[in-house]
Amino acid sequence: MSAPLRVLFCIGINQNFFDLPTGQGGAVWKATVQLLDEIEAMAGVRVLGTIDDDAHMVGPSDGWPWTAYVLADVDTQETVKAVCNLFRTIPVGEHSLWRYAKVEARIGRPLVVRDDVEIEATS
């Protein structure tokens, strides 16, 4: 079995959320909770942590810095795509979650010294 992919799901809240009438964002929050629950329950995904930066960032985020992040170990790129697809399939009224939020997955590996790197001993 290969090592899992270390994936940072970067979530940006877009202008459509901020265009909702004041106090009408509850359906989006409910969908976001469903999103997080479905990610946690998805086979092949182990959520390591989340970060929400809504206290220091006001307004939409179209790129870095993102509004929220989910860091996870994921078994395959197909599973990464399935997580991203949740934004298309989770309903928010007559729309889907992706009307209000976007996602970008950054795939890498844990930050460790690779086996093929030699480190000289220091005195």
Structure in words:
With 123 residues, the protein is an alpha+beta fold. Helix content is 28%, strand content 29%. The chain has helices spanning 15-19, 26-41, 77-89, and strands spanning 5-13, 45-52, 68-74, 91-92, 95-96, 101-108. The strands form two sheets. It has a four-stranded antiparallel β-sheet. It has a two-stranded antiparallel sheet with strand order 4-5. The longest helix is centred in the first third of the chain and has 16 residues, at 26-41. The N and C termini lie far apart (38 Å). 20% of the residues are buried.
Please outline the helices and strands:
Blueprint: E1 5-13, H1 15-19, H2 26-41, E2 45-52, E3 68-74, H3 77-89, E4 91-92, E5 95-96, E6 101-108
Antiparallel strand pairs: 1-3, 1-6, 2-3, 4-5
Summarize the structure in short.
The chain has 123 residues and is an alpha+beta fold. The protein has helices at 15-19, 26-41, 77-89, and strands spanning 5-13, 45-52, 68-74, 91-92, 95-96, 101-108.
What characteristics describe this protein?
123 residues, alpha+beta, four-stranded antiparallel beta sheet, two-stranded antiparallel sheet, 3 helices, 6 strands, 28% helix, elongated
